[in-house]
Amino acid sequence: MAKTDDVVDAAAGVPTVESTLGYEQARDELIEVVRRLEAGGTTLEESLALWERGEELAKVCRRWLDGARARLDAALAEGPEEQTEREAE
């Protein structure tokens, strides 16, 4: 897992989120960001960067969860015949 401080857009000073970041990676990094914010001891600038990174990571997690929900809903909407046909392919 990349350290939060290491993943910053140098031009804007704003944390970036990789498009290939998986759900578990984003979740684990988000947990670490929250832990660091709750622990305190960071400057205002560091805290704001952590907060922004947390917001981006939360969006990544939400996209993964929304996608999983859509896939589940689509699978449930299919009848048993359609699922069997798809599995046979």
Helix percentage range: 55-70%
β-strand percent reads under 5%
Largest sheet: 2 strands, antiparallel
Q: Indicate the overall shape.
A: rod-shaped
End-to-end Cα distance, whole Å, is 37 Å
Q: What is the count of DSSP helices, taking H or I runs of 4+ residues?
A: 3
* Integer-rounded radius of gyration: 18 Å
How are strands sequenced across the largest beta sheet?
1-2
Identify low-pLDDT runs. Answer: 1-15
Number of strands: 2
Topology order in helix (H) and strand (E) letters: EEHHH
Mean pLDDT: 82
Task: Determine the structural class based on helices, strands and strand pairing.
Answer: mainly alpha
Q: Can you describe this structure?
A:
The chain has 89 residues and is mainly α. 67% of the residues lie in helices and 4% in strands. The chain contains 3 helices and 2 strands; from the N terminus they run E-E-H-H-H. The chain has helices at 23-39, 44-77, 80-88, and strands at 8-9, 14-15. A two-stranded antiparallel sheet has the order 1-2. A hairpin with a 4-residue loop joins strand 1 and strand 2 (14-15). Helix 1 packs antiparallel against helix 2 (44-77).
Summarize the structure.
By secondary structure, the chain is mainly alpha-helical. The chain has three helices and two strands.
Helix/strand layout:
Elements: E1 8-9, E2 14-15, H1 23-39, H2 44-77, H3 80-88
Antiparallel strand pairs: 1-2
Helix pairs in contact: 1-2
Short key terms for the protein model shown above:
89 residues, two-stranded antiparallel ribbon, mainly alpha, single chain
